[in-house]
Amino acid sequence: MGDLEPIPAVIGRKAGYTLDRSPVRHRADTHMSTFTDTLTPRGYGRKPENPEETYTDTGKTCKFHTERTLVEYLGIKPRPFFHLTCCVVCCQCLDASRPWLCYWILHSLELLEEAVPAAVVSDVCQFLARCQSPTGGFAGGPGQHAHLAPTYAAVNALCILGTEEAYNVINREKLLDFLYSVKQPDGSFVMHVGGEVDVRSAYCAASVASLTNIITPTLFEGTHNWILSCQNWEGGLGGMPGLEAHGGYTFCGTAALVILGKEHMLDLKALLRWVTSRQMRFEGGFQGRCNKLVDGCYSFWQAGLLPLLHRALFKDGDVTLSLSSWMFEQQALQEYILLCCQNPAGGLLDKPGKSRDFYHTCYCLSGLSVAQHFGNQDLHHELVLGKEENRLAPTHPVYNICPEKVAQAIQHFHQLPIPAQKGATACAEDQS
Ligand SMILES: [Zn+2]
């Protein structure tokens, strides 16, 4: 397993890569004549509550928005726990994503440095325990089938809570059995028994297995080669070999390879070219795929790749890397999130005109955190747009929970023995 620290202590000199670094104030002056690399409509930079005034009109950062504090603007401070405890009517369509709701909300709160009361921590632990399947792994809700996506969300949520009660919810032996039950002979994983294969599953499996210390010698046999085969001619990764490169899948595949210590086997320069080309020069935000509109959630899925790439290129011996900034326009991304992705009543969203939701709130905030913090504890450089109150806590670019919670979970679970490979035999029998 690779070193999970995103950035080493010493990095090297200034980057020489070709990301278009034209300052935001210049982008505003010139975007209409030169803006050909996205299909975004003209009014895209408009603030929904001030339709008469655009970001383009002012030609500079909007003072009103960037000087308001993020918590003030988000408006979730007065009732931060409402949806952790009351989620009956408005979220029926998310009935199979309930551990996700816990994760999205808890991670948003930790980024905002809002404490969770002990009683709520315990309630969430008990709820997630009810989502754990008797056959191992977690389901989207109590009584449902185990699935890798809510398993990832539940383990992340429990690690954010970080109490003994939270850690003790996870049945590591059964979790290992579940991972073997979804492992495929070619190294890939299905999302659930009888379900689909894609690169998300490899990431979810690698993430929970590494956090809880259940990686056996055979669990990820062949997985890195399967993930590598998802990198295509564009430079990014598709959901499966041969599919179009996509931000979410590219993050999942790259982060999984970092966990498995094989990220150097990617074509890193092609990946760097692909991901930096996904930041749009007018909006400042990222698109998920070539020729798609910018979407706030790719602030994490795409920008979150840059810390992984920075570290991988450093390990590869690149001495031209910056000591103070990632290889994307960090200020432009912060402007897009703060100016275009906030609902005045609280919460964040895809783009102006769209509804707020917990998924976009979590990933817009996660992307904002990546854009504000360069490096790790040894070498840290902050770039916070607007008031100091806009500052979020740093996030770990592999797991997307705060780095101290990753360290605490790894310290806790690495004191425990790796469970016996009961599932390995079952897997071998299945394949015979
Ligand atoms: Zn989105």
From TrEMBL:
Its cofactor is Zn(2+). GO terms for biological process: lipid metabolic process; prenylation. CDD domains: FTase. One of its GO terms (cellular component) is protein farnesyltransferase complex. Keywords: Lipid metabolism, Metal-binding, Phosphoprotein, Prenyltransferase, Repeat, Transferase, Zinc. Its EC number is 2.5.1.58. GO terms for molecular function: protein farnesyltransferase activity; zinc ion binding. It is an enzyme of class 2 (transferase). InterPro entries: FTB (IPR026872), PGGT1B-like (IPR045089), Prenyltrans (IPR001330), Terpenoid_cyclase/PrenylTrfase (IPR008930). Coiled coil: none annotated. Residues 38-58 are annotated as: Disordered. It catalyses: L-cysteinyl-[protein] + (2E,6E)-farnesyl diphosphate = S-(2E,6E)-farnesyl-L-cysteinyl-[protein] + diphosphate. Binds 1 zinc ion per subunit. Heterodimer of FNTA and FNTB. Essential subunit of the farnesyltransferase complex. Catalyzes the transfer of a farnesyl moiety from farnesyl diphosphate to a cysteine at the fourth position from the C-terminus of several proteins having the C-terminal sequence Cys-aliphatic-aliphatic-X. Catalyzes the transfer of a farnesyl moiety from farnesyl diphosphate to a cysteine at the fourth position from the C-terminus of several proteins. The beta subunit is responsible for peptide-binding. Belongs to the protein prenyltransferase subunit beta family. This is Protein farnesyltransferase subunit beta. It comes from Pygocentrus nattereri.
